[in-house]
Amino acid sequence: MRSKTINAQALAYEWSLSAPIADALPVDLGGGSVLPALGLDCPNCNRPMESSHIRGNVVLIEPGVCRIEGVGACGICEMLTVFSFRCTGDRGSVIVEWHEPSGRRLVHIRPTLWLRCLRHLKKRIGLYRIGGKKKPYSR
Ligand SMILES: [Zn+2]
């Protein structure tokens, strides 16, 4: 996890340079386990973030396991959310794990349930208000 003292402007800058996670999807974790999409709701206002505003990296850690981490920006309330998910292929489905202040969360997602996967980030992992201009992160 990132430090809580991270500078919000630096985070916004990092976000502006990052590619959408959607560009790196789908991720094939082997054995028929494929992660096709990632959707996040803003932990601050509960509205879905635009796909192009969910940015960062998909890193393969080992065969069948990847980490998806980055920063999502909400176009409505202008909050940044730091996220990090560990995804493990499991016989055609995918187990997604992440940390919340209350502890570790785990969700098991089966291929038939994919619509917009992973709309489960309800509590803040790391939430930062963007300072400065009205919409400093718009393209
Ligand atoms: Zn929001």
Chain-wise SSE layout:
Blueprint: H1 8-17, E1 27-28, E2 34-35, E3 54-62, E4 65-73, E5 79-90, E6 93-100, E7 103-109, E8 127-129
Antiparallel strand pairs: 1-2, 3-4, 4-5, 5-6, 5-8, 6-7
List keywords for this structure.
7% helix, 8 strands, mainly beta, 139 residues, single chain, binds zinc ion, six-stranded antiparallel β-sheet, globular
Describe this structure in words.
The protein is mainly β and 139 residues long. The chain has one domain (8-111). It has one helix at residues 8-17; strands spanning 27-28, 34-35, 54-62, 65-73, 79-90, 93-100, 103-109, 127-129. The strands form 2 sheets. Strands 3, 4, 5, 6, 7 and 8 form a 6-stranded antiparallel beta sheet that branches. The longest helix is centred in the N-terminal third of the chain and has 10 residues, at 8-17. The radius of gyration is 15 Å and the shape is globular.
Summarize the entry for a quick read.
The protein is mainly beta. It has one helix at 8-17, and strands at residues 27-28, 34-35, 54-62, 65-73, 79-90, 93-100, 103-109, 127-129. Helices cover 7% and strands 37% of the residues.
**What is the number of beta strands?**
8
Q: What letter string, H or E per element, gives the SSE order?
A: HEEEEEEEE
Distance between the termini: 27 Å
Q: Tally the helices: what do you get?
A: 1
Number of domains: 1
Strand residue percentage = 35-45%
- Overall spatial form: globular
Identify low-pLDDT runs. Answer: 112-116, 131-139
Main sheet?
A: 6 strands, antiparallel
Structural class, judged by helices and strands?
A: mainly beta
Overall mean pLDDT: 76
Q: How much is the radius of gyration in Å?
A: 15 Å
The share of residues in helices is under 10%
The bound ligands are: zinc ion
